[in-house]
Structure formats: C-alpha cells, structure tokens
Amino acid sequence: TGLGHGGGAALILNTNLHGPKRVTDAFLPLLDTPGRVVMVGSGAGPGFIKGCTDAAIKRVLIGGDASWEQIVGTLEAGVTHDRMQGYGLSKAALCAYTMLLARTHPQHVFGICSPGFIATKMAAQYGAKKPCAAPQPAPRRATAGSTARATALRRRSERTRAHRHSLASGPRRA
C-alpha cells in the first residue's frame, strides 16, 4: 500500500480505494444474481473516523448515502486529518464505497471485513503481536435452527467436494 514504504497518500488511495473500484467495475457485470462482493477493510478506517475533526468528511464517509463523487471529494481534505498518510482514510472511503454499491445494486450482497492485525513490521508499532501457536476455536453459540442450518451447510459442502472431485478426475468411461 505504500504505508511505511514511502509511497505516500496518492499511492495508498490508488491501491486501497481506486483499485477495488476498478476491479468491481470490471467484474460486477459478470456476477450471477445474487452475487457477493467482499472488500478488505481495516480497523484503521473506523480509527480515522474517530480521529477526524471535519464533520463534513465524517458525514460523507459514514452517512450511508454518499455518491462516488462525494466520496472522492473527501480525499484531499481527508488526508490532512489522517495520521497514517491516507491509509485510514482509504479504508473509511472503501467502506463508504461498499455502502454505495449495496444501495445502488440491491440484487447483490456487499460486505467489508477487517482481517485484524497482521504481524508485520508496520503493524508492530500499533501493537500487533504474533498469533499463538495453536489457535483456539471460537465459542459456538447455539440458536433455534442452527443445527439444521449447520447440517444443510455440511451436506452442501460435501456435495460440492464430491462434484469438484468428479471434475478433477475427468470424464468417466463406460
């Protein structure tokens, strides 16, 4: 992204906001309906919003009703509020763009997620640590119908694996 590598805000914004937009613009027409698009966000996005003192920028990025032009319009002024050279701004703007996509393409599902801290030199300055050697499973929460849903998902997964296996082994001969 350029963060920590001397690339500057323009490179960061090009990579983290304009790049996903270019990819989405290219592939969105090819998605089956309903399609799913997941963007990779960061906790730096909400961190930028929390630290930004410009109410107009915040309103555009978290209001849920911004146009692409409004999102792009926040970038120049937004960089001056970002302690991370535009990284937090780029992720907040990506979230606003994801909300725009969800609003303008209701036939598809759009989401944005954060992978959490990744143990890199850059993230170490913000408190990232190496993961434990043996990750612990997340606690399971049972709800009405969760067993039936889990069973259906497992069966679908087994059918998909069997189908992939049959495709990988090639056509069957009689």
Short structural summary:
The protein has eight helices and two strands; from the N terminus they run αβαααααβαα.
Structure report:
The protein is mainly alpha-helical. It is 53% helix and 6% strand. The chain has eight helices and two strands; from the N terminus they run αβαααααβαα. The chain has helices at residues 8-27, 44-51, 55-62, 68-73, 75-79, 87-104, 121-124, 146-168, and strands at 36-40, 109-113. The protein has a two-stranded parallel ribbon with strand order 1-2.
Computed Rg:
21 Å
Task: Tell me, rounded to a whole number, the average pLDDT.
Answer: 79
Biggest sheet architecture? 2 strands, parallel
Strand content: 5-15%
User: What spatial form do the alpha-carbon principal axes imply?
Assistant: globular
**Portion of residues within helices:** 40-55%
In which order are the strands of the major sheet placed? 1-2
SSE inventory with pairings:
Layout: H1 8-27, E1 36-40, H2 44-51, H3 55-62, H4 68-73, H5 75-79, H6 87-104, E2 109-113, H7 121-124, H8 146-168
Parallel strand pairs: 1-2
Helix pairs in contact: 1-6, 2-6
List keywords for this structure.
174 residues; two-stranded parallel sheet; 8 helices; single chain; mainly alpha
